[in-house]
């Protein structure tokens, strides 16, 4: 496949593996976190860890939007669809995301709630247009990649005077989460030693640009390499991180220069800033409450905010204690260290969000047969 195959070339992958092997020092360990679930899947799918020297370890980060969404937010959505006038529009992965006490949107739908799976924000607009007597709520979720389409949807709804459309906003921000990981010594030193550097997300960085990570690299003296999702992208990013560590550098480097610029997408960032503002705190599964890490609609667009319109309140709840998603999303454990992995918990019978989501680390390990 053009534009993909050239980034999956076996000979080049082996050459990169030899280059990494030649450059790592046997006197130290290298521990790199890939923030994004897309990279976790590439690493598992192509067996990239098997190409790395034993002292280079990849730690899986929290960059999967469904995985980090806490159960309380699913509970809020379920309370929302208890209202007979509400139609809730959600992306497919969210249907099975766990709320508290075994609840999910799929179960709510089976019990009669009006929940529709959509592929884009435009589907929600269409539905709202076709159902003027109902309250259509879009369950907005995701990092900076999916936030601009939500902003555009709200602007369209405003222009079309769609009074029945609103947004249940769960958008979260990557740099704030990375800041929280680096700031908290319990997470920063998770799983037996400090994190030496990050592979930064691909799609998110097309929007926010590499400059968004510069304060983090500077403040915490950690190298960050933005990388694409193909196996050669990841291998090259690891080589770039190894070089920075060996040379005592902590810069933001851009491996994914075919799509990412320093500035990012100015138009998309403008849309976001016109419609959203920061929440003081937002809860992440795995990271807990992270300051300035979530978005809500700003005062000018508050009338489209489902939390305001329906007086919804967040009530934190505990996760299933048998599920290790909390530790996995902090990089403290690997999926195979969970007692339920592959026995009680599989993609057909998922217990936790990391198995529910197609981007989750547990789903990646199961799908690609990783055993360590
Ligand atoms: Fe949770 Fe299942 Fe992953 Fe265990 S295997 S951490 S139960 S999602």
UniProtKB/TrEMBL annotation:
- Check the record and name the Pfam families matching this protein: HypD
Q: Name one GO molecular function term.
A: 4 iron, 4 sulfur cluster binding
Protein name stated in the entry = Hydrogenase maturation factor
The entry sums up its family as follows:
Belongs to the HypD family.
Task: List the lineage, top down.
Answer: Bacteria, Pseudomonadati, Pseudomonadota, Alphaproteobacteria, Hyphomicrobiales
GO biological process, alphabetically ordered:
protein maturation
**What InterPro entries does the entry give?**
Hyd_form_HypD, HypD_1, HypD_2_sf
- Keywords, comma-separated and alphabetical: Iron, Metal-binding
The organism named in the record is: Bradyrhizobium sacchari
């Amino acid at each position: 496949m053009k534009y993909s195959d050239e980034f999956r070339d076996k000979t080049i992958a082996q050459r990169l593996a030899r280059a990494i092997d030649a450059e790592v020092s046997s006197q130290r360990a290298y521990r790199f976190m890939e923030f994004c679930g897309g990279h976790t899947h590439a690493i598992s799918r192509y067996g990239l860890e098997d190409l790395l020297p034993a002292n280079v370890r990849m730690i899986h980060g929290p960059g999967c939007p469904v995985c980090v969404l806490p159960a309380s937010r699913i509970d809020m959505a379920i309370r929302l669809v208890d209202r007979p006038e509400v139609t809730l529009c959600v992306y497919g992965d969210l249907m099975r995301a766990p709320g508290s006490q075994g609840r999910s949107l799929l179960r709510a739908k089976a019990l009669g709630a009006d929940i529709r799976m959509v592929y884009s924000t435009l589907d929600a607009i269409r539905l709202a247009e076709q159902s003027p007597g109902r309250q259509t709520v879009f369950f907005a979720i995701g990092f900076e990649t999916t936030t601009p389409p939500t902003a555009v949807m709200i602007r369209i709804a405003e222009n079309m005077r769609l009074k029945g459309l609103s947004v249940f906003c769960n958008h979260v921000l990557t740099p704030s989460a990375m800041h929280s990981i680096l700031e908290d010594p319990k997470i920063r030193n998770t799983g037996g030693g400090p994190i030496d550097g990050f592979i930064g997300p691909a799609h998110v960085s097309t929007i926010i640009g590499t400059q968004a990570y510069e304060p983090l690299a500077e403040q915490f003296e950690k190298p960050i390499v933005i990388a694409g999702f193909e196996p050669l992208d990841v291998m090259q990013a690891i080589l770039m991180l190894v070089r920075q560590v060996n040379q005592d550098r902590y810069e933001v480097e851009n491996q994914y220069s075919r799509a990412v610029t320093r500035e990012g997408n100015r138009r998309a960032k403008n849309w976001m800033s016109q419609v959203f503002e920061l929440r003081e705190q937002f809860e992440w599964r795995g990271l807990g409450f992270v300051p300035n890490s979530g978005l809500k609609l700003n005062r000018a667009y508050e009338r489209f905010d489902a939390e305001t319109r329906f007086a919804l309140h967040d009530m934190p709840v505990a996760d299933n204690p048998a599920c290790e998603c909390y530790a996995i999303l902090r990089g403290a454990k690997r999926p195979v260290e969970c007692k339920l992995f592959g026995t009680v918990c599989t993609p057909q019978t998922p217990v936790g969000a990391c198995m529910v989501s197609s981007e989750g680390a547990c789903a990646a390990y199961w799908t690609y047969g990783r055993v360590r």
